Amino acid sequence: MTNTLFPEGFLWGGATAANQVEGGFNEGNKGPNMADVLPGGKERLKVLKQADFDFEPKPGTHYPNHEAIDFYHRYKEDIALFAEMGFKVFRMSIAWSRIFPKGTEKEPNEEGLAFYDRVFDELHKHNIEPVVTISHYEMPLHLVKEYGGWKSREVIGFFDQYVQALFNRFKNKVKYWMTFNEINSAMHFPIMSMGFTINDGNDKYQELFQAFHHQFVASSMAVKHARKIMPEAEIGCMIIAAPIYSYDSNPENVLYALQEEQRFNYFAGDVHVRGEYPAFIQRFFEENNVKLDIREGDLELIRDYTVDYVGLSYYMSITQKKNKEDAETAAGNLLEGVKNPFLKASDWGWEIDATGLRIILNKLYDRYQVPLFVVENGLGAYDKVEEDGSIQDDYRIDYLRTHILAMGEAVQDGVELMGYTSWGCIDLVSMSSGEYSKRYGFIYVDKHDDGSGTQERRKKKSFDWYKQVIETNGAALTSGEKISSGS
Question: Domains of the chain (ranges plus CATH)?
Answer without folding.
Answer: 11-477 (3.20.20.80)
